[in-house]
Every structure is written in C-alpha cells, then in structure tokens.
Specification:
four-stranded antiparallel β-sheet; three-stranded antiparallel β-sheet; elongated; alpha+beta; 2 domains; Immunoglobulin-like
C-alpha cells in the first residue's frame, strides 16, 4: 500500500509541476533592440527550435495587422539572432514581435536616446511652435527687438518650460489620473505655470534687477503663453512617459529660443535698412517671420537616423 501511495503522490506532483517545467524549458526573449536602418537584434535565454524567417512576425504598434517582411535571419553566438527586414526600422518606434514556435510575444520598446533625440529635433525644428504652429507670437514679437533680451528670454523660457512640463506631468500622472480629475487639467496646468513664473519673477527681481526690467511685462505673459500651456496638454493627451515629456519640453523651449534669436538678429539689421514707412515696425516683423517660416518648412521630413 505504501509504494502505491508514493507512486500516486509522485504522479500528482509531476502533473502539478509539468506546466512550470514546460515554461522553464521554453526560451525567453531577454533583449530586443532595433538597429538602423533595418535590423532587429534579439537575445534568447535558450536555443530556438526554429530560426527561419517564417517563424518571426514583426508589426508596428500603430499598424498591428500589417507585418513587416523578414528578409534574413542570422544566428550569432550566445543564443543571439539578427533579423534583417525589407523596410527601414525606426529606433524611436514601438514594435510588436511574435514567434510561431515557440509561441512568444514581446513588445520592442524604442531606444531611450533615439526617442529623446527624435522628440527634441521634431519640437525644435520640424514642428517649431512659432514658425509652424504660430503660437506664442505675443512674446515673440515683443522681446525679439534686441538680441541680448531675446537670448535672456529664450533661456528663461526654456527653464520655465522644463519645470512646468515636468511638474504638470507628475501631477497628471500621480494625482489627476488616479483620482479621475482629468477635466481639471487646464486649471491645474495654468496654476503650475503661474507658480513657476511668479517664483522666477521674484528671483530675478532680487538677483538680476536689470534683466528683470528688460523683460518687463513679457515675463508675466509667460503665464498665459500658448506654448508653455500646450506642452503639458500634449503630454497628457498622448500619455507620454517622463522621458518623452522632458524631451518635448527641452525641444519646444529650444525651438522658441532659436526663433527669438534669429528674429532678434534680423530685426537689429533691419534698423539700418531703408524700410518704407508703411512697413516699419510690426509689418516688416511679420514679413520676416513669414520668411523664417518658409525656411523652416525645409526641415519637413527630416530623419535624424537615416
């Protein structure tokens, strides 16, 4: 009787441990990294039963029903494989990888540095808030008369942008989201911007009074600036992570500072030009802004990882 009971217990234990043993025997994807222009490098925890192109299926997160054709699968030492695809892969894109045998699924996350550079370049050049979206024009035309004032405002605006974007992102992610208070985003973000600008205004008045007098009313206009409010709203709408939110804040601030610097240089030179009386002042400034906007259209389609 005792041996039969022991056999029964052993069989029951094997039946209970069979799924765990099978899962342990199945190889796992330890790492997946996109390498431009068209390679995906994989590392597995064990050997794969199949290493042909039909065993892999890669799709983008935006188009999960359209697979990307695999041209070649090259094995490498240490259970590594290099997959070459028929079309270009973007290191800043989200991909979904599936294997037929064994059935494995893996989300291929974008490279942090590629994502950071892509968002920054897009916000600063391709989708410049001033020259492509025509936001923040009040401060843009008011502070771009002198180069030193434009440089100071550009640096100040970038610092305020980074501080407000990250504070707004943290409040939206950890306070408004869990409490389901998303309808208060605009009010909360305006409050954050007002707090940061008031703090900066007090600090500049105490430490740099000359710079504070040069900024004048335009420093307080940062509170209601369209750009500084648009960045937190875009981050909240897209559900961005901390890295994407920081990259968008840096890129948009740098783009606004670049626009101020270029415009201030052009307007200082226009003071020595013979401008007809009807075009003096804001009319010629709007014409210059239009020419800069045409120039920035040349950045459309820019791909940093080409």
């Amino acid at each position: 009787m005792v041996p039969s009971r022991a056999r029964v217990l052993v069989l029951v234990a094997l039946l209970l441990l069979a799924p765990a043993l099978a899962a342990a025997a199945t190889p796992r994807i330890l790492s997946a990294r996109v390498v431009a222009p068209s390679e995906l490098r994989l590392r597995f925890s064990g050997a794969l039963p199949r290493a042909d192109a039909e065993n892999f299926r890669l799709t983008t997160a935006r188009e999960p029903d359209i697979p990307i054709a695999v041209q070649q699968v090259r094995p490498a030492p240490g259970n590594r494989f290099v997959l070459t695809f028929a079309q270009r892969l973007m290191p800043a894109e989200h991909y979904h990888l599936e294997l037929v045998s064994p059935p494995i699924r893996r989300e291929v996350q974008p490279s942090p540095w590629a994502l950071l550079l892509t968002v920054m370049i897009a916000a600063a050049f391709i989708n410049n808030f001033v020259f492509t979206r025509y936001l923040g024009l009040c401060i843009f035309f008011g502070v771009s008369k002198r180069r030193d004032t434009a440089i100071g405002m550009g640096i100040t605006f970038t610092l305020v942008m980074i501080a407000t974007a990250m504070l707004s992102w943290a409040l939206d992610r950890y306070v408004l989201g869990p409490l389901r208070l998303g309808f208060l985003q605009i009010l909360v973000f305006i409050g954050v911007v007002a707090f940061v600008v008031q703090f900066l205004d007090t600090m500049l008045r105490k430490t740099h009074p000359v710079l504070h007098r040069r900024f004048g009313i335009y420093l307080m206009l940062i509170t209601t600036n369209c750009i500084i409010l648009a960045v937190p709203l875009l981050n909240a709408q897209a559900g961005s992570g901390p890295l994407e939110a920081l990259a968008l804040a840096i890129g948009s601030g740098a783009g606004f500072a670049l626009a101020l610097f270029l415009m201030s240089c052009a307007r200082e030179r226009m003071e020595y030009a013979r401008v007809p009386l009807p075009f003096q002042g804001l009319p010629i400034a709007f014409a210059l802004a239009g020419l800069f906007a045409l120039a920035f259209m040349g950045f459309s389609g820019l791909d940093f990882f080409r």
